[in-house]
Amino acid sequence: MADRKFVYFFGNEDTEGKNSMKDLLGGKGANLAEMANLGIPVPPGFTITTEVCVLYLEKGAYPDGVLDQINDAIEKLERINNKKFGDVENPLLLSVRSGARVSMPGMMDTVLNLGLNDDTVEGLARKTGNERFAYDSYRRFLTMFGDVVLDIDHHKFESVLSAKKKEIGATLDTELKAESLKELVEIFKSIIRENTGNNFPQDPREQLQMAIDAVFNSWNNQRAITYRKLNDIPTDWGTAVNVQSMVYGNMGETSGTGVAFTRDPGTGEKEFFGEYLINAQGEDVVAGIRTPQPIATLKQTMPDAYAQLEEIYQKLEDHFKDMQDIEFTIEEGKLYMLQTRTGKRTAAAALNIAVDMVNEGLIDKETALMRVKPEQMDQLLHPMIDPESEYEIIATGLPASPGAAVGKVVFTAEHAEEMASIDEKVILVRAETSPEDIGGMDAAQGILTVRGGMTSHAAVVARGMGKPCVVGCGAITIDMTSSTFTVCDVTVKEGDYITVDGATGGLIIGKVDLITPGVTGELETLLKWADEFREMGVRTNADTPHDALVAREFGAEGIGLCRTEHMFFGDDRIPVVREMILAEDEDVRKKALKKLLPMQREDFIGIFRAMEGYPVTIRLLDPPLHEFLPKHEELANKLKILEEDASNRPKVEIESLKKVMERVESLIEINPMLGHRGCRLGITYPEIYEMQVQAIIEAACELKLEGIDIVPEIMIPLICHVNELRSAKKDLVEVAEAVIAKNCIDLDYLVGTMIELPRAALTADQIAQEAEFFSFGTNDLTQTTFGFSRDDAGKFLPFYVSDSILEADPFAVLDQDGVGELVKIGIEKGRSTRPDLKIGICGEHGGEPSSVKFGYNIGLNYVSCSPFRVPIARLAAAQAAIEKQDNS
Ligand code: PEP
Ligand code: MG
Prior knowledge:
The chain folds into 4 domains: 7-248, Dna Ligase, domain 1; 398-515, 3-Layer(bba) Sandwich (Glucose Oxidase, domain 1), CATH 3.50.30.10; 534-624 and 669-887, TIM Barrel, CATH 3.20.20; 630-668. It is of the alpha/beta class. It has an 8-stranded mixed beta sheet with strand order 14-24-23-16-17-18-19-15. Helix 6 (154-168) packs antiparallel against helix 7 (178-196), helix 20 packs parallel to helix 22 and helix 23 (632-644) packs antiparallel against helix 24. The chain contains 34 helices and 33 strands. The longest helix is centred in the C-terminal third of the chain and has 26 residues, at 586-611.
């Protein structure tokens, strides 16, 4: 082990590391070495490898050879700097920083000016002729060492510093003279003594050893452990330690320190972006003690250093081929780089930088596509809270549908519609929504519900509409009698303004400014590139011509799910639908359905036209019938009122209300999600599906006569046994053939099914004998595989996720091990019967990037998602194809 290399030197000579050694040297160490290799001025130093961290934490001791290698490296630093570590006349001072493979907040950060003690500080003062600088450095060192190595709350030091400034009437640290700084040093040492029971270690070697130990130990502090868990960072990576010669930004007016980005991290604009402070050390910029200057002014204050900085940042960007986040220090006019790393950026910046860099010839299209996170694209398409505005989030629910909305509170769908009709902007606040609320949801700017999960009715419908929506916000309590809701002791009345942020789940009382980013040219460009690479189709879930058109604009190549139940609502439809449900015999029901037929036909004509020949999958009615009737409680209230006023009412009014109530009672189900819905409804009331198929085929025939070729895909929901499909299909084919024959036309159509129950997936080979296509309904498949109710899981799922029982909400991110395995089995079995079976997915997962990628890898032909998620799916599908290509 003694021969093993544990310490890697870097400097403008003898650099031993390089950028590709991040696993061993950590991101910071590898990039410092790389900068040195590029001839960029970095203060020389050395990196102690991540391997040492792992061995040290395992054994509680350093492996043989490490300490010798550290001593050798210090000797080398002494030689290069012509200073000596611990020397009273000409002391070498060091910085110590942690640096894991990826940047990791929560770990020990930085100790500067290490090596100072009561003697070397004097030497530094004499050598530089700057006593103020020497004592300023010493008080900083004591604070940082006390804070990060000895774990003493930094406020203890800062409150003394503030008191001192107050005492002498100073507002800035820089106004403190050497005398005051000397006094602070004494007090700081006594703080350390009081808090640790020991004197501050005067021996620089001991200081260094303690600082290195502290960095390694910080790998296992609670904050770091939590961060690793949240970000899937393996424990056995360990952190490296970077020990570097100090350069000083606090040596006076020709010194300074700053941080910068090679492009604007907010917008992506190709403009050097950053700030700096004169006469300061690194932590001052981040700590916000003084307001830093914009980087552009450095051009005037220190033109030479600025010119050098400009040259370096361009060199770094050219070399790393990505936007860099850099730290620098200027010591008496001389520039040093302390760090470079890939800069974090907003979604807009990620997009703009990726496209610009392709146009500049820096990267290829594949790289650009891999650099934009599909999930970030949501931010680019919806209105969002202006990042400049100030606001307080009073409660948080689930971020069900992205975008932010501001409006007046209303508590009923009818009220929402009324207010919208007089151009008032409203937010619909409900305990939960039901299909009846659809008009109100459409009229509102946004939706907030107390209950419900990511695939609750409100969530699914809002996403489909592209409406901002927060669901499951359990912190609010609605009181319908007083038309108010309360949240954290605040009472919000109907008509008061609130803001909801569907991207974060946040609820804000009052109005907040919004901005609408819109679809920019870069977005279009990137998505076109995505289409060049992706192999899987992207369709949309849309129920109206408007949604279909929106989805087309976002690049949808067809409709993968048209939920026809949404066509049963609406003022003109609901009375007829109720007539149909309340019908006592088949004849009456058929009469009502006859009235619905032309309406449905018009709906389909509209949708087919909007999709201009792209495939359209229409799902026959799925939800249980009671959803179309008024709520029992509402009816009971109404009946009470009527009965109280019975003498003035016609008897028939009360009788008919009673009849409706009886029907509602007879349709009530304990567990409607597992009840009389889907194909079970179509099999027991065949005339409903027959009417729908007639409408679909008539619409397609009409368009065909106009010259628009449509191949309708008729989809039967919630099949669990092939016999269900056989039975339903037989009737439907007869109806379809009759319509086609009547129109004397040649029309192709397909009859397929949703696979949304485990039994369907497991018997997909049998089901494929009848089904001409499959579409996985992963919402119901998740519900039935986990046994979690889609509407009630909001009560425990957030806890499951925060407590790491589940990695993610399975209704939002496909559970690949369980539900995904069923999808895989379904695909394999389905294609074993019908090798060319077209298979898609139309649950909410169809627009979630990791699920889209999984779908591609297991052989789906397409994914289908709500219109606003189409761009996300396009990009994710392209990334999946590029990743596959890279791995092969
Ligand atoms: C599904 O279950 O995944 C699906 C798409 O159908 P719905 O959400 O309408 O039940
Ligand atoms: Mg379903």
